[in-house]
Amino acid sequence: MMINKKVRNIQQKLLSDNYYILNRVTFDYLMPSGHWVNQMREVYDRGDGAGILLYNKAKKTVILIKQFRMPTYLSDNEDGSLIEIAAGMLDKDNPEACIIRETEEETGYRLKKVKKVYEGYSSPGVMTEKMHFFVGEYTEAMKVNEGGGLDSEAEDIEVMEIPFDRAVEMLHKGEIVDTRTIVLLQYAIIHKLIE
Ligand SMILES: Nc1nc2c(ncn2[C@@H]2O[C@H](COP(=O)(O)OP(=O)(O)O[C@H]3O[C@H](CO)[C@@H](O)[C@H](O)[C@@H]3O)[C@@H](O)[C@H]2O)c(=O)[nH]1
Ligand SMILES: [Mg+2]
């Protein structure tokens, strides 16, 4: 941890801990020219996350979810709804336990086994978050409730079971614009999860 000799004098100033943590971080950075320059970054820390692509080989389907995402609505997403993989923030549990819990809350399927495929920083210039990516097979027998998210968190999640071919078409037509979902659909294509 923190062994980079080109970086020193890191200072953090808390800008907000209203919900998660936003810090203003200043530091000195040694340029290739040999000069130290003072730099500033605002860094958002809301912990790490996990996401999963659920797929069924026999039915040749995947499960995605649709929900309202305010930041995209403030950007250019017309009605603010976004098609995504099931995903959640790690509380104190490990990524695997987290994704199994989130899958049940959001989609209604209780998985026993998941496969970790990637780890990656979500938005490395801005936030600390690292995402843990999983894939998992689901069957009708694993369905324990309707999903839809937690009322206590005011979640309104639509569960979408769709043919894998349709998901790939949506990907290629630009109807899927969540990076994490793009990553896992591409994983499924590359590794022929469904044929
Ligand atoms: N009041 C309040 N509640 C919040 C706020 N931010 C999040 N929440 C609550 O925290 C819940 C988080 O639900 P999760 O399912 O755990 O997380 P997520 O929003 O699906 O996040 C996943 O996707 C993100 C990408 O959009 C990832 O960044 C994240 O790591 C995770 O994978 C939300 O439903 C909401 O109730 C906030 O600023 N204020
Ligand atoms: Mg979620």
| DSSP strand content | 35-45%
CATH topology descriptor of the largest domain: Nucleoside Triphosphate Pyrophosphohydrolase
* Main sheet characteristics: 7 strands, mixed
Helix fraction, binned, reads 10-25%
Low-confidence stretches: none
What would you call the shape?
elongated
CATH H-level superfamily title of the largest domain: Nucleoside Triphosphate Pyrophosphohydrolase
Structural class: alpha+beta
Bound molecules: guanosine-5'-diphosphate-alpha-D-mannose, magnesium ion
The average pLDDT value, as a whole number, equals 96
Can you count the beta strands?
A: 10
Number of domains: 2
Give the CA-CA distance, first to last residue: 43 Å
Subunit structure: Homodimer.
Keywords: Hydrolase, Magnesium, Metal-binding
Catalytic activity: GDP-alpha-D-mannose + H2O = alpha-D-mannose 1-phosphate + GMP + 2 H(+)
Motif (Nudix box): 88-109
